[in-house]
Amino acid sequence: MRFLVKTETFLETLAKAKGTLACNDQRAILKNFAIRATAGDEGAPGRLTVVSTGLDLAMVCECEAEVQVNGTTTIPGDQLIGIVTRAGSLDISLEQTSQAVVIHSGRFEATLNSMTADDYPTVEQFPADYRDWE
After folding, report:
1. 5, 65 Cβ separation under 8 angstroms
2. Range list of β-strands (E), 1-134
3. Closest CA to 38 of 23, 51, 29, 48
4. pTM recorded for the entire structure
5. pLDDT in tens, 50-99
């Protein structure tokens, strides 16, 4: 997975999703954001989907990003927010390696351990026509 996203857009998306992170849970995976990067089709922008859950409640947030390589991973939520907050106004690039993600912003670089998204709890998605419900 590899993508480039505007810092303010990414931070806003992470802040929305942060509300359902399980801070006091013993399961480390629930303290992570699940992140999926999907490239756009024929000139359309790519999508970055950020999921957080405490098992009783889940939040799914999306934003636009320049996605070079599709993929999914999970990243420690509080640490990611702290890094993005300190990155300043430059764009954030994130690249997944074998067991970590490398985050770049200008001359700044940070590495966070990641966990496979296969271990993340499944979150039911709304059907595409949910806005038409009466």
Report:
1. yes
2. 2-5, 32-38, 46-53, 58-69, 71-76, 92-96, 100-105, 108-113
3. 48
4. 0.86
5. 999 888 888 999 999 999 999 999 999 999 999 999 887 889 999 999 88
